Amino acid sequence: MEEEIRNRVDESGLVSLDLGDLLPKGVILPFDLHDYLWQGLILREKPFRDALKALHKSDFKGRTVALFCSTDAVIPDWAWMLVTSQLTLLHAVVWIGNPADVNAQILLANIDSMDPASYAGARIVIKGCSEAGGPHALGQVIRKLQPVAKSIMYGEPCSTVPIYKQPKA
What we know:
Strand content: 15-25%
Mean pLDDT: 90
Strand order of the largest sheet: 1-5-6-7
Structural class: alpha/beta
Number of domains: 2
C-alpha cells in the first residue's frame, strides 16, 4: 500500500510573507530635473515653467513618478514643489528620489501600512528568496510584526533561521 504524500510545510501552520508582494505594481516613471537645466548647471525659472506646461499631454498622467536630479546641480526648493504640483494635477503620485530609491520608499510605506492584527499569534516565515528585502525593509517588517507574532523566521519554510520567539508567559 502506497503512503499518501503529505506537505508538512502546509500542515505546520507557518505563514509565509514575501516582501516582493509589497513592491509597487507597474513601472515607476523617472522625472530627471537634469533634463531641464540650462547648460547642465542652472535651472532657469521661466523656461522651466514653460517646459512644465507640456506635461498636460504626457505619459505621467495617473502614474507613479520618481522625481530626482541625476547631476550634482543645486536645485532650488521651489522647483521640486513646482514639478510635484504639476504632476499632482495629472493625478500622478510623486516620490522624491531616483526610481530605485522610490521603489524602496514605497516598499517601506507598504510594510508600514500592513495590518499587524492579521499576523497575531502567527508563526511567520519572511521569505528569503524574495525580489525585495534589504536591511531597511527587513528591519521595518520585524518592528511591525514582532509585537504580535508568536515567532518570526527568515528563509524558506523548509530551511529557516529563527529570528524571534515570543517568550512564554
